Amino acid sequence: MHVHVSIVGLDRISTSFALALKRYQSQPKAQHSFTIIGSDSSAQAMKAAHKLGAIDNFDRKLLKATENADIVVIKSPPAALEDIYTRLGPALKPGAVVLDMGDLKEPAIAWARQHFPVNDRGMPLAYLVGVTPIVNATGLFTSEAGPEAATADLFDRAEFLITPDAACPSEAIALAEDVVRLIGGVPRFMDPAEHDGLTAATEQLPALIGAAIFYALQQSEGWPELRRMVNPTLALSFQMLRHQTPADLSLAFNRNKDNLARHLGNVIRTLDELRQALATGDMDKVDAFLTVVGREWDKWDVKRHSGQWEEAPTTETLPGPLGSLGGFLTMSRRKKREQNGEEE
């Protein structure tokens, strides 16, 4: 089966996704092939992804790049997302599945409900499934975020969070699961609200703290000398300022402000205790803190590299469009029924 895929927003993650699809179709026993069209506001990003062989062609015009797409992958900056959904939604062909790779899933669900095409009974004709790639351990510690750093094995044996809307049909969810397996990932299902709460800690909290570190140092009297002494340890702490605009950061923080404020409060309490210990010379307390951190870090590092998380739930395997032809045919029948206004 040949599948048309469009990728809106080309960075390390989305380009690695495309490379993994291309790797799959190069296998002698591959049952599916892909035509992949990329779109990005940056001509350099599109050219880089094309040079890598991740995409077959590219077009900066959103609707041109996504026309006739069976699967649309969205990996764009927060400030661009609402506009993308507003313009893309009505143009999606019936049966299309959008895989949203954005940090926050609940806003995307709301935009899809508002803008995706529906039939005469108000039933959706295109579907949104949130997906969040978790890179494997070999690709974890790097500051490179552009398509030039993409690799086909970035998701091998790594978890891929699938966060569908509660109203999403099982066939669309199964398609997302099948795609994840094709690129070497391990599907794990999660509620969108739970996902966004965790994202506040894993993505937005480090970005906010990094911005705060940069601001505090830049405002200090020693900045004229400090700025000349920046090495990787400090630079990596605020690397997101290279890849995200103030507008993108502000939107992301605002859309998840309650969760972010809660996690930030926990960090502030920890930092305040450390500040007091240092100010009073209580190095025993600092040493105890570092001992705990070192021990827990070692535990986490071993598990992160092994991928063995004892608390990870087993996932239910659903019959899917890319696992067998039945799923895609089921989606086709559903599309025809919904277009004709027939009952399930």
Describe the 3D structure:
The chain has helices at 12-25, 43-52, 62-66, 78-88, 106-115, 170-182, 192-218, 223-226, 232-235, 240-243, 246-255, 257-280, 283-306, 325-340, and strands spanning 2-8, 33-39, 57-58, 71-74, 97-100, 127-133, 159-164, 186-189. It is an alpha/beta fold. It has two domains: 2-190 and 314-340, NAD(P)-binding Rossmann-like Domain (Rossmann fold); 195-280, 6-phosphogluconate dehydrogenase C-terminal like domain (6-phosphogluconate dehydrogenase C-terminal fold, Orthogonal Bundle), CATH 1.10.3660.10. The longest helix is centred in the middle third of the chain and has 27 residues, at 192-218. The two termini are 26 Å apart.
How would you sum up this structure in a few lines?
The chain has 14 helices and eight strands. The protein has 344 residues and is α/β, with parallel strands linked by helices.
